[in-house]
Amino acid sequence: MQLSSIGSRPNLASDAATALATSIRSGALQPGARLPSETELARQLGVSRPVVREAIAYLKADGIVETRRGLGLFVNQQDSLRLRRAEIAASEQSILQFLEFRLGLEVEAAQLASLRHTPENLEHMGAAEAALNAADDAGEDSSAHDLALHLAIATAAHNPLFLTVLQFVSSPLLNSIRSMRDKDRGEEANVAIRRADHAAILDRIRARDPAGAGEAMRKHIGESYRRYAAQLAAGGPMPAHPALQTKAK
């Protein structure tokens, strides 16, 4: 196992945990393999042993490694999907990747919601939209309300897998929404765009227009993607998802 030094960063333990997890998942260490000593890990990462110990605590909490008394640290069998909030928060580029993931999931959910929604689903989505708009009007953090609206749309798809996946990633999803809100804090125009996007999505769902609902959701996620990407420092980002390279008409 060979790791690159992570140097000096604001959250060394979180970065060290991410570097270790990435190395393990790349196959550098197979399930059942023993990890190098704390001293060796600290040397390779370029951090102190206390930082390594804190990083190991993250990995234990996620079930990636385990301690065997008297033997040391070992890699667990990775037989279940795990996603830590820190893995989404680790870089701004990862938030763009998360938006691409949402595109593939939520466009389909919106289309199905337009075909399958019940009166109760419409009431739930409407209440979530109203709570979101009220929080924005009051200048409050509306991220949780935004998430609730998207979960309500997934529920209306009446395919439990859409809701299950969104709930599974709800913590990093909420984190990415908050990160984007922090980027455009004080920009009233962006609040207006989000509000219009949500209204358009729900309008097409109510009208039982699957093509329109899917396109409205695609436009909404695409606007977030383009706005956030434009705010990042230049550094040669990867090409955007084909559906996000041009503005929806």
TrEMBL record:
Cited Pfam families: FCD (PF07729), GntR (PF00392)
Species of provenance: Bosea robiniae
Keywords, alphabetical: DNA-binding, Pyruvate, Transcription, Transcription regulation
Protein name: GntR family transcriptional regulator, transcriptional repressor for pyruvate dehydrogenase complex
Keyword Transcription: yes
InterPro entries: GntR_C, TF_FadR/GntR_C, Tscrpt_reg_HTH_GntR, WH-like_DNA-bd_sf, WH_DNA-bd_sf
Top-level division of the source organism's lineage: Bacteria
SUPFAM superfamilies found in the cross-reference section: GntR ligand-binding domain-like, Winged helix' DNA-binding domain
Domain HTH gntR-type: 10-78
